[in-house]
Description:
Layout: E1 6-7, E2 35-38, E3 52-53, H1 56-62, E4 67-71, E5 74-76, E6 80-81, E7 91-95, E8 107-110, E9 118-119, E10 129-132, E11 134-137, E12 143-147, E13 170-173, E14 176-177, E15 185-189, E16 193-196, E17 208-213, E18 217-220, E19 238-239, E20 245-250, E21 254-257, E22 269-273, H2 283-287, E23 292-295, E24 307-310, E25 327-330, E26 340-345, E27 350-354, E28 357-359, E29 363-366, E30 375-379, E31 382-384, E32 388-393, E33 404-405, E34 425-428, E35 435-436, E36 444-451, E37 460-465, E38 472-473
Parallel strand pairs: 2-3, 2-4, 4-7, 5-8, 6-9, 7-10, 8-11, 9-12, 10-13, 11-14, 12-15, 13-16, 15-17, 16-18, 17-20, 18-21, 20-22, 21-23, 22-24, 23-25, 24-26, 25-27, 26-29, 27-30, 28-31, 29-32, 30-33, 32-34, 33-35
Antiparallel strand pairs: 1-19, 36-37, 37-38
Amino acid sequence: MRKWLVVTKWCSLLVMALVLCLVVGVAPAAGAGGVRYVDKYVARDCQNKDPCYTSIQAAVNAAQPGDTIYVFPATYNAGVDLSQMDPEGDITLITVDANGNPAPGTVTVDNPGDNPEIYTGNPPFDGDVTIDGFVLRSLYSAIDLRVGGGLPPAPAGAQGGLGPALTRDVVIRNVDASNTGEDGIEVRAEGDVTITDCTTNGNNGAGIHVWQTLGDVTITGCTSNENRCEFAAIEGSIECRPWGIAVRGAGGKVTIEDCTANGNEGEGIVVEPLRFGGQEVGPAGVANPDSVTITGCTTNGNGYDGVLVRGRGLDASLGVDLDGGGVTIKNCTSNGNEESGFDPEGILGTLSIQDCIARDNGAGVDLDDMWEAESILVNGSIICGNECGVLIEGDRKLRGDGGINLEGNWWGCPGGPEAAGCDPICEDLVDSIAVDFTPWIAKITDSATVDPVSVGQPTVVSFQFSGNPTAVYLGKGPGDLRGPAPFTVTTDNGRLDGN
């Protein structure tokens, strides 16, 4: 039984915007609207750029739809309520250095009050929001956003009772939202959400929490480690859910790439479908098959699962189908988690787990709740040191006829999962399920080809499996340096470049 500590939350939602398509040393390009500047230090006076404000909130209050606000280096001890913009519209917040060039990490917002650092109110903020480059510290969530143009009624006779969303999008880049009293970054949007190159460590809640989003969600290059539920900070309460990265309720595609979510009290990565009574909503969900793609991620040492992906499951009330788009997990490392390395549940399309590492978990891959899948593929992965390499329980037949394909994996010994000392495939009442785990990788060679072999020159090292797949390169598939592997690599200069 999972128990979550309870923490407080006075303020609901937080929105902030930043744009990042900037080149160092070149003055940033403005958005569709005007340009405004913020400089806490009157003597510096925004480097004589105009209009210049001494607080971020003052610039937001004066902004017009489409404006870009450049913030000069300083620590600003006040939160920023984007909903004070009048009229509301697209807004971008970017940090710059003392010369006015883009410079992530040069601006800190530390709000001592009762609100997050950058936030929106209710109803949702009516505009796109971009936030780029800030360091945020808070007793609450650092970023708490809700954006959208509203959901008008559906035309007569339409199912679901919802018309197309008037979408508003959120982009968050280069933000450090760590050691806050609640979630580091929390976003709800009636459009797309893109979060890139952010750090959300040590929060009293989730590192990144995206929920009730009608569009696509893309999270890349983020680090979200050691998030916990350690205290009830402030009056009022919400459930504290100490995930690393969580996407709960996405109407479109979910893509999580090259992220790290280690040592969290809950799961490392959690993805759940949009929940609107089983009805598909949102333009992204209607136009494209829903799908979840998780690639190049590391989820080690979490208190529950490394990666948990929930589809509709056996209970239709949990959410919409994944429309056959299915779930793909590739080139990920998930080791030393208390429960499972990879735990897909209730996926109705195809599940594909390829070229991953799952070591020293309760179960490497938990397929216990996958009886409505069309097919299940787990191939080319290192699955060893787990109590169960793959867990399969139940006596129901898969919805599709693809069966469960577990070929081409390394099970910790040459004899495969039926041999003593190998990770077992734990089965219970599955006579009706076709499970194929042969052939398996019988040996990982300790030799490698190196070319060229000149000291101080770039070197390519190719590791060869003596089974299937035929070749795996460093940084691609089993053996990825993001997690432990059955070999160690050193170089003459201590540096590894590229793949």
